[in-house]
Amino acid sequence: MLELRSEKSGNVVVVRCAGRIVHGPEADSLRSVVLSAENARIVVLDLSELESIDAGGLAELVLLHLWTRAHNTQLQLVNPSNFVFEMFTRTRLDRVLQISSFRKALRVLSGADCARAEFAAAAR
After folding, report:
1. Deepest of 11, 70, 79, 109, by most Cβ within 10 A of its Cβ?
2. pLDDT at 102
3. What is the topology classification, in CATH, of domain 2-123?
4. What is the spatial distance between Cα 119 and Cα 25, in angstroms, rounded to a whole number?
5. What average pLDDT does the structure give for the chain?
6. Residue spans of beta strands (DSSP E) within 10-113
7. What is the pLDDT of residues 39-86, one digit of tens each?
8. Is the pLDDT of residue 116 over 80?
9. Where are the domains of the chain?
């Protein structure tokens, strides 16, 4: 089962994924949520609560990656569990998909101001 919670702030949509992304209704529901965010500049998939993913789920993420690129949208995957990250690495999708920690994603989303604030905090 896959539980999805979506939040929109400006032109950024964050989709929190919990459970598993597998071929079938789970992958279909993820696709529906991402495609409904067609006006977003950035779609962030928070994978911190994702327990597993199968080949169908990986294929769905590749299709979503291609769709977002075609629509001038950035797809960012954040905080995958060790198992999910290992699946990305074994299939070499870590070289195709944008995968990062939540902190790095925040830096990208907020631009240079966040990076300067982190630098200033680290200098203290």
Report:
1. 79
2. 64
3. Transcription Regulator spoIIAA (3.30.750)
4. 44
5. 87
6. 12-21, 42-53, 74-78, 98-100
7. 899 999 999 999 999 999 999 999 999 999 999 999 999 999 999 999
8. no
9. 2-123
